Amino acid sequence: MSTSADIPSKSRRTYQTSTIRTVLSLPPQWLHMYDEFITKNASQVSQIESALRSLTYIIPGRFRDAEIASETLHSGVQLLSLYHDTLLMRALSRIPLPRLPSPHSRYTKYWTQRSPMYRRIAMLLQMVTYTQLLCEMAAKRRGGERGRWRVIVLLEAIKAFCRLLLLRVTRARPLVTPVLPEREPIPEEPEGDGGDGALKELMDESVNGHVVDADADADTPKPHEKEWVMPRTGTHLPSLPKPGDISGYLLGKVLTADDIKPAARLLNQLQGGAQAAEVLHVLAPLIYAIALSRSKNKKSWTPWLIGLSVEYAARQLRDRSFRTTPLEREEWSKRGWAMGWWTMRGAFYENVMKGVVGGVRSRVPGIVGGILEDYEYLWENYYFSTSA
């Protein structure tokens, strides 16, 4: 039998247990509230993220006195944006979009939803890409140049391994940049007037007792440019075209072959030389990093020529036939523009671009020159500042 002294102890234990459960249930509730806030204020959150990124780019002395602190802020914003992208993609999956998404968005969304392996690998690849410069800075401070190059080669090996796995998961289809779907704006909900206001505007009738004046506000869309929302079903009826732009209106409504093609077929499976080109493109950064780590002279052309040769060989071996899809051509176009970063790497920067950048810095205003000087320090001392 329990004594009277045992009753308070039991009630105390019960109270402690309930308190612990209450405390443990708070973080999921806070996270759910945060998710709802991000979903309902997507545009404002995007503006804040953009402002924080811009701030890390233009902070004076960013890369000398507080390089790790500033890069930590930048990497944190990037990782937080990655989490926000996941939340908004879930919200968009429950909303019928008024327009067709881009081929890149359709393709990446297809693989992230269809293959959990693709989603995990792509997420890891994006996280490594967002934090690679921060890892290099920390490695240099802790282990010096030797430790820094070990981390660089390790990170490039992880990225190459992830990309090769993605190549296998997608059944030898070309990789896209970025490997995850890009953020799309969430369409705003229609106002609560049930479409009566829009209908009255279309009929040039009064709204709330006031006659609609077409010249009152030049920024507001004209009645024939607005979509009308049906009150009962919520269906959007398209606006009528302008009399002088009927051809453009009709062309905008035409579906292309990529619009009706299954998402998996937006990129063809690679074979033979095209597959070798993709593998070379994946391995080019790793080969360049290994060659650069073994070179003791920063002005040596050998590592730079090795890396550029592998990248150029990949471009020459790629499939140029008529079977290439528009998304594949777009991806190779991005890679072509990205090859411009080779002018800011290794021996080419040390022997050529360094003097050019110094000359430009001496001719621009002081504030711009100070920011450019900070970036010079970054380009000269950190590998991942010009790496993809």
From TrEMBL:
<feature type="compositionally biased region" description="Basic and acidic residues">
    <location>
        <begin position="219"/>
        <end position="229"/>
    </location>
</feature>
<keyword id="KW-0962">Peroxisome biogenesis</keyword>
<dbReference type="GO" id="GO:0005778">
    <property type="term" value="C:peroxisomal membrane"/>
</dbReference>
<feature type="region of interest" description="Disordered">
    <location>
        <begin position="215"/>
        <end position="237"/>
    </location>
</feature>
<dbReference type="GO" id="GO:0007031">
    <property type="term" value="P:peroxisome organization"/>
</dbReference>
<comment type="similarity">
    <text>Belongs to the peroxin-16 family.</text>
</comment>
<keyword id="KW-0576">Peroxisome</keyword>
<dbReference type="InterPro" id="IPR013919">
    <property type="entry name" value="Pex16"/>
</dbReference>
<dbReference type="Pfam" id="PF08610">
    <property type="entry name" value="Pex16"/>
</dbReference>
<protein>
    <recommendedName>
        <fullName>Peroxisomal membrane protein PEX16</fullName>
    </recommendedName>
</protein>
